[in-house]
Design a protein that fits this description.
By secondary structure, the chain is an alpha/beta fold. The chain is built from 14 helices and 20 strands. The longest helix is centred in the middle third of the chain and has 22 residues.
């Protein structure tokens, strides 16, 4: 993983690529631009270019012209993407450091550009035999009167949390089964200062986690249930926020084996929700957010071996409700149900779950947004949507009408784990609603959690979606 530094400076560091954030080209005259370079920048600006590269042999400067109409979420996203373009050029030229000169004095603009550069520096080459032997590093210097070092440290810690999430998702199941996931979570808790408790199979049997144990019946590896808790003395909330993440470390579909070509290729990513919860806990603890936060991560793989559950089976869940299993590939909701039920123990003010749950969500929104629904009030949903828009991890709220609940009624149990093909993302959410009593939001991140081709600062593979959105949301609650 790239060693990343983000530092404030009042000097002009040597041997780095320079980036100038300006409103007009007049601001460049004091920075050594000669007449020809200024003329080129002005010509490009008149052609309505906003990111301009000035090259002189092996020396390159970048000028980002900020428009008045970019003072919004879309404008900040454009700056992040320009940060990704600059990083790509630096990587090509084997440049490992940049300095941003903020000649606009806008905190949001400077942070967005820094964030795009920082997030783009991620790489997952652990298993490449021809990778560079030297540790990768990337240094970002920022000269700005609008930002202090504390804010840059916060961004670096948040970026590190996203990288941790990406690493967990990108890791194959042969090196990250449930036991190894438990070890990683314990290590992260020790490093960043949040408490970790892990329930083994015997404890889960005592607690009657019928969904998690049921999904695990086809696996030779035992399941685990992870409790992560960040509770600072300065916490401003009497009741915690509980985050729940689906931790299916690999999903074969079980007895309903996934058979379409390519459908198994990225199923190591089916623990994207769990990874996002872990990353959010890392971000909150490392940046000392004054909130009591609990993370719950049920974990197993979903295999067709042993005494694997089959369609027609009945499971009794942690809260005592019974579930008719119609499809073993609708397993994520079964393990989430037990975790949501267990969240009652904390009397939370709010529960948010994240899961790569349905293909229906992917078909509806692609990789560009997360499906959201639930029982939380309008103010909470609005705050979450604002947070998602601010970091461009957008949430689209789906209807949650009672009629959808009729589609998962069972003739022989309390509820069945699959509805019809139509509205599959919503009926999955309706299923989960049977197991949570507190105000609750369900986030189906199946679309944006794992991208198949390069996507600007999100890279390819694991995107780390959910961490930045939840961190922004939690900060708004402080």
């Amino acid at each position: 993983m790239t060693q990343l530094t983000i530092k404030h400076t009042q000097e002009r560091p040597e041997g780095v690529r320079n980036i100038f954030l300006v409103k007009t080209t007049d601001a460049l005259k004091d920075f050594g631009f000669n007449k020809d370079a200024l003329a080129y920048v002005e010509t490009q600006a008149k052609a309505k270019e906003t990111l301009i590269t000035v090259r002189n042999y092996n020396i390159a400067y970048y000028v980002r012209i900020v428009k008045d109409n970019e003072s919004n979420d879309q404008g900040c996203e454009a700056l992040r993407k320009d940060g990704a373009l600059i990083y790509a050029n630096c990587k090509k030229d084997k440049q490992q450091a940049v300095c941003i000169y903020d000649l606009v004095g806008n905190k949001s603009f400077s942070l967005a550009l820094c964030e795009g550069l920082a997030l783009s520096s991620y790489t997952f080459d652990k298993y490449k035999s021809d990778k560079e032997k030297d540790a990768k590093r990337f240094d970002i210097w920022l000269a700005s009167s609008a930002i202090n070092q504390g804010e840059l440290d916060e961004l670096r810690q948040l970026t590190n949390a996203v990288f941790i999430t990406r690493n967990l998702v990108n890791e194959p199941v042969c090196t990250l089964n449930v036991e190894e996931l438990s070890e990683r979570i314990s290590e992260l808790g020790a490093i960043h200062g949040f408490e970790v408790e892990i329930f083994n199979k015997s404890k889960l049997e005592t607690l009657k986690f019928g969904g998690l144990l049921g999904v695990n019946k086809g696996s030779i590896d035992p399941p685990a249930f992870h409790i992560l808790e960040w509770k600072p003395e300065s916490a401003t909330n009497d009741q915690p926020v509980v985050l729940v993440g689906k931790g299916v470390v690999y999903d074969t579909g079980g007895i309903n084996l996934k058979t379409p070509p390519g459908s198994l290729d990225d199923m190591k990513s089916d623990m994207g929700g769990a990874a996002a919860v872990v990353g959010t806990m890392v971000a909150a603890a490392s940046n000392k957010l004054p909130l009591h936060i609990v993370g719950l991560v049920p974990a197993t793989d979903n295999r067709p071996g042993g005494n694997a559950i089959v369609p027609g089976d009945i499971l009794t869940m942690h809260n005592g409700k019974t579930v008719e299993v119609l499809n073993t590939d609708a397993e994520g909701r079964l393990i989430l149900a037990d975790a949501l039920s267990y969240s009652k123990k904390y009397n939370p003010q709010l529960v948010i779950d994240l899961a790569t749950l349905t293909g229906s969500a992917v078909m509806a929104l692609g990789q560009y947004a997360t499906v959201g629904m639930g029982t939380a009030d309008e103010e909470v949903f609005n705050t979450l949507e604002k947070a998602g828009n601010a970091v461009y991890e957008r949430v689209v709220r789906f209807p949650f009408w009672e009629e959808y609940g009729e589609l998962i009624k069972s003739e022989i149990a309390d509820v069945k784990n699959l509805g019809p093909r139509e509205a599959g993302a919503i009926t999955a959410g309706k299923f989960l609603s049977h197991f949570v009593e507190s105000p609750w939001i369900h986030l189906d991140i199946a679309g944006p959690a794992f991208v198949k081709k390069e996507d600007s600062y999100r890279g390819n593979g694991a995107s780390g979606v959910g961490v930045r959105m939840l961190y922004d949301f939690l900060k708004r609650k402080c």
